[in-house]
TrEMBL record:
UniProt source species: Mytilus galloprovincialis
Source domain of life: Eukaryota
Protein name, UniProt field: Hexosyltransferase
Family: Belongs to the glycosyltransferase 31 family.
Topology with respect to the bilayer: Single-pass type II membrane protein
A single cellular component GO annotation: Golgi membrane
Keyword rRNA-binding among record annotations: no
Enzyme Commission number, as recorded: 2.4.1.-
Keywords from the named record: Glycosyltransferase, Golgi apparatus, Membrane, Signal-anchor, Transferase, Transmembrane, Transmembrane helix
Pfam entry (one): Galactosyl_T
Subcellular compartments: Golgi apparatus membrane
MF terms (GO), sorted A to Z: hexosyltransferase activity
GO biological process entries: protein O-linked glycosylation
Length: 271
């Protein structure tokens, strides 16, 4: 599934957002389209989003996805099975699509479908990314800090044949829920991926291993502007109003209305 015209004929496209989404997360995608990925909320900036999916075995689910795409025309579906261990393919698919169809965006963002992003703050305080080159902005992880899990019972276990005799990943990298990427870097990352052996942990591969092969690349940490705590996200965006320094937060996944509530609170601080 491809929608090649998403970025065409836009005189000023501020950001192209690629969203890692699970095939059956219809409601999450709908909420994101109505809230922080809706360009009508931004006066002088324009956002476009693509939702990245893999293939599914269920023909009924596939039909529903195709019907969704007929309405919104924003789904990109790659030729790989949609699974947790195929997230690297999903990221490379995003790089490929942007490289081929959206070079006019001033910068790009990769986000998961369980986050909320305050693009008002991005455009106001972090707009310098538009002028940077070979630049990643994210929840930065320094080299030799991220442990390599060997226990087969662990979610991110890595076989002993890989990274032999290493206890920690030797790369500067990004923790995954949101990464902001300078416009020049997307095609470079895609080209580098096409020449690099596959590794299934996408945070490490896309934002650690690949960047380590690109000269003069900078990881800019916004760690203090990212929260993985549901309650803090709601409190910061909702109660502290303009004092909230968050750029990326995680709404409660058990509450389908959480993102809408947070967004409504955030909008009140803007207008």
């Amino acid at each position: 599934m491809n929608n090649k015209n998403i970025c065409k004929n836009i005189s000023k496209l501020s950001c192209i957002v690629m969203v890692y989404s699970s095939p059956d997360h219809f409601e999450r995608r709908e909420v994101m389209r109505k809230t922080f990925l809706n360009s009508t909320f931004y006066k002088e900036e324009t956002i476009r989003a693509i939702f990245l999916l893999g293939e599914v075995y269920n023909s009924s689910l596939q039909h529903t996805i195709e019907q969704e795409n007929l309405v919104f025309r924003d789904i990109i579906q790659g030729k790989f099975i949609d699974s947790y261990r195929n997230l690297t393919y999903k990221g490379v698919l995003g790089f490929k699509w942007i490289s081929e169809n959206c070079r006019n965006a001033e910068f790009a963002a990769k986000i998961d479908d369980d986050v909320i992003v305050n693009f008002f703050k991005i455009f106001q305080h972090f707009s310098f990314i538009k002028f940077k080159r070979r630049f990643l902005m994210c929840d930065k992880v320094n080299p030799n800090l991220y442990p390599i899990q060997r226990d087969t019972n662990e979610k991110w276990n890595v076989h002993n044949d890989m990274f032999k005799r290493m206890l920690r990943y030797p790369y500067t990298s990004c923790l995954g829920p949101a990464v902001f990427i300078s416009r020049d870097l997307i095609p470079i990352l895609y080209t580098t991926a096409s020449m690099s052996p596959f590794f299934w942990i996408e945070d490490i591969y896309l934002f650690g291993i690949l960047p380590s092969k690109i000269p003069a690349l900078v990881h800019h940490g916004i760690n203090q502007n990212v929260s993985y705590n549901y309650q803090y996200t709601a409190d910061c965006f909702g109660k502290q109003r303009k004092e909230c320094g968050l750029v990326v937060g995680m709404p409660d996944p058990e509450d389908n209305t959480a993102t809408v509530k947070i967004w409504n609170s955030l909008i009140k601080t803007i207008h």
